[in-house]
């Protein structure tokens, strides 16, 4: 065997070594290219998966936002209906209060006419209790109507707000 090795010139051994080394390097390059292609495929798959998750999360968030808006719109519509009803009842109450005030004014005028026939010293004692009480009743009636309207508006707004919050909590 030693003779066989001597028959082959030295430069051939160097060429064989160079070919083997170059072949090894080529093999490493091919393996690295395969791993790179596999990594690129995995990265593309991961990006696709992430974008799909993002799309689903966005769609879910949009659906939840639309649901919440629908709940708020429904509560707003109901509150508007209650406000409309309240305004109708307030107008009716104001109409009746105007009639009551007219009746009080008529009674006060009748009382004044009666008082004109009473002695002058009694008239000088001051305004009669009926006139004072009639004025107080009229003022308190007007204020009670205004306060009742404001209170009812506040109650309706609070109930609408509570309904929205309750619906948001119950459908999470």
Describe what this molecule looks like in 3D:
The protein is mainly alpha-helical and 172 residues long. The chain has one domain (2-170). It is built from four helices and no strands. α2 (10-116) packs antiparallel against α4. The chain is rod-shaped. The mean pLDDT is 81.
Share of helical residues: over 70%
User: Mind telling me the C-alpha Rg?
Assistant: 48 Å
Tally of DSSP β-strands: 0
| Residue-averaged pLDDT | 81
**Overall spatial form:** rod-shaped
Give the H and E element order: HHHH
Poorly predicted spans: none
The proportion of strand residues reads under 5%
Tally of individual helices: 4
Termini gap: 85 Å
Largest sheet: none
User: What class would the helix/strand composition place it in?
Assistant: mainly alpha
Estimate nothing, just give the exact number of structural domains: 1
In short:
The chain is mostly helical and 172 residues long. 93% of the residues lie in helices and 0% in strands. It has one domain.
Q: Which short descriptors sum up this protein?
A:
rod-shaped; 172 residues; single chain; mainly alpha; 0% strand
SSE order and pairing:
Layout: H1 2-7, H2 10-116, H3 120-124, H4 129-170
Helix pairs in contact: 2-4
């Amino acid at each position: 065997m030693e003779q066989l090795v001597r028959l082959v010139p030295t430069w051939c051994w160097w060429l064989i070594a160079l070919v083997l080394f170059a072949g090894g390097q080529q093999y490493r390059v091919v393996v690295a290219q395969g791993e790179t292609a596999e990594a690129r495929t995995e990265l593309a798959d991961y990006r696709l998966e992430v974008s799909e998750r993002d799309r689903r999360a966005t769609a879910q968030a949009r659906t939840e936002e639309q649901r919440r808006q629908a709940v708020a719109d429904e509560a707003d519509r109901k509150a508007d209906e209650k406000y409309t009803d309240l305004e109708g009842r307030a107008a009716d109450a104001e109409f009746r209060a105007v009639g009551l005030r007219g009746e009080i004014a008529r009674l006060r005028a009748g009382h004044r006419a009666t008082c004109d026939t009473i002695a002058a010293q009694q008239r000088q004692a001051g305004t009669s209790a009926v006139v004072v009480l009639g004025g107080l009743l009229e003022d308190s009636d007007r204020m009670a109507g205004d306060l009742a309207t404001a209170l009812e508006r506040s109650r309706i707004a609070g109930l609408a707000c509570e309904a929205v919050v309750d619906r948001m909590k119950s459908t999470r």
